[in-house]
Amino acid sequence: MVHLPAADDVRIPDDPTGSAGGPDQDLALLKDVAAQMLGERDHMLGFPVNLDFDYRPLADFLHVHGNNVGTPDAESEYHLHTKTFERAVVSFFARLAGDPDAFGYVTTGGTEGNLFGCYLGRERFPDAVLYASRTTHYSLPKIARLLRMDYEAVEVGADGAMDLGALRGRHRAHPGRPAVVVATIGTTTGGAEDDLAGIRGALADAGTDEVHLHSDAAFGGLIAALAPEPRPWAFESGADSLAVSGHKMLGAPFPCGIVLARTDQVETIRRPGIAVGSDDDTITGSRDAFTPLLLWYELRRLGRTGLKRRVGHCLATAQYAERRLREEGLHPERAPGSNTVLFDAPPAAVCARWNLLTVGDRAHLIAMPHVTVEHIDRLCADLRS
Hints:
This protein is of the alpha/beta class. The chain contains 12 helices and 12 strands. Residues 1-25 are annotated as: Disordered.
């Protein structure tokens, strides 16, 4: 566990020249915290982040202020940007998602991607009701409040996915209104995947074809796309927009992601020339120019083949964890094709040591790329002791 310094040790003085310690002591403090965080990498089993990366070759970019202001598809009057790299990243994910011509940009993470998708849907259908399952990402009720949309949390079935009958019934309570639906591909509580085609069918049965369907594939999108048996998750399955995380299967030192949408629909929100000479069709306008470099660098290193191999590693490790935890008598369960294993929560000290997220009496183990069978064996040894 990382022990952060006390508030007095990190207080920022009005006059640094008169403070005790000085730059050398500050660097020593930072090095100590960094060493603790690096040490924690070997015990991170419960959260959907990948720690298998090394971006130190890109350190020179920390000496400039890069800003990918406005749309990634055009230059701006600010010349220190990495939009060419951003477009390459977007192109890779657009092809993977089944629409090579899709619009997209690099985001701050899944929440911004979901906000973009819901915003696009609301602008297409201003009177729409926003629907998501009860196991959706915690950002969705907040997004509904931000966008001033009526929000319906839809019940889930035994598998943790959205109950299509419940969706049908809830929408019938809003006759004549369009729908914006967020389908979760890989819930944080167990890896369940909503049925995109089924959602469209249920809403058609309920009397509407005015639907914007956003796929929150932040966690499970790359797994669904690249598993040995790929599963529906993107444009070819009926999505109008989708979000994928960059810090999960790829890996990054901070949250980030990619959002994609059908190009013709983005015209609804595009504002010409307002972002220092660039059109703006993004949420944040001014955007970080460093993250596209990280994602590009890792994608160039891995390619689709390497990502597919990485997904296979995660699923094999999850399968191994499921077997070993069953041998320990902890009643593990895993959704088909998921890298999340739920099991009986061990003592609090073990959960803290291994960064295991617990919900009620169940713990989550998530087999990310940095997790190996050796980690699982060491966890099981701790459980026995």
